[in-house]
Amino acid sequence: MKFPGEAAERIARSLQIQGPATVAELGVRLGMTAAGIRRPLSALADVEFVVATERAPFGPAPAPRRGRPSLVYSLTPTGRGALTDDSELLAIDVLRFLQRTVGDQAVKEFARERAERLVSTLQLDPLSPVESLAVTLTAAGYAATVEEDNGTTVQLCQHHCPVVDAATEFPALCEAETAALSAALGTHVLRLATLAHGDGVCTAVIPVNRTHNRKVSA
Fold first, then answer.
1. What average pLDDT is seen over the chain?
2. Residue 73 sits in a domain of what CATH number?
3. Is residue 65 part of a domain?
4. Where are the strands (E) in the chain, listed by range?
5. In this structure, are 115 and 73 located in the same domain?
6. What integer is the mean pLDDT of 13-33?
7. I need a surface site. Which of 52, 143, 159, 188 has the fewest CB within 10 A?
8. Domain containing residue 26
9. Whether the model pTM is above 0.90
10. Residue 178 falls in which region: left (phi positive, over 0), alpha (psi -120 to 50) or beta
11. Whole-angstrom Cα distance, residue 95 to residue 1?
12. DSSP letter string, 27-45
């Protein structure tokens, strides 16, 4: 499905790669005025490529404030599907062939090997492992950020997934990635939401020890 104009596609790709945003934030990202953002954004909403909510689909709830909050725009599964390229479609065909001719276990083994290969490229700082994980995941195409949670945990948010359509049909890809991240961090990683399941962002809760980190760095 085609996008309703070049500006609309630029906005969609920003939401895909950099995550949900308000009109003001999109303007800063793309160097456009609020008026220049609103029209193509409205066109994206008309074709159900984006959805507007009063808060981002990840992280803690915002503090109460006066006035009406700015709407946050996120890609819908339809919008992400419109951005799918031919290489991912080929990958899905290969996985279907593998499942049909060899079986589900072969898909799981492929997913495990792929996840371990991804994790082997990550560079973790012992003093801030989750933050450094987000930096290297971003370099790998996942547009990852870290959101503070309650002091003992943080949320790792992945705003983009290079294989989201494949993971929608083959959940083993998400499961293997979560297990590999848990092994790399040496702690339990709990998935709360995934793009593959139709959520606005992939989120995972990860325990942290801020007190320990402060003592080590002191």
1. 83
2. 1.10.10.10
3. yes
4. 50-53, 72-75, 144-148, 153-158, 190-193, 202-207
5. no
6. 88
7. 188
8. 6-82
9. no
10. alpha
11. 24
12. HHHHT--HHHHHHHHHHHH
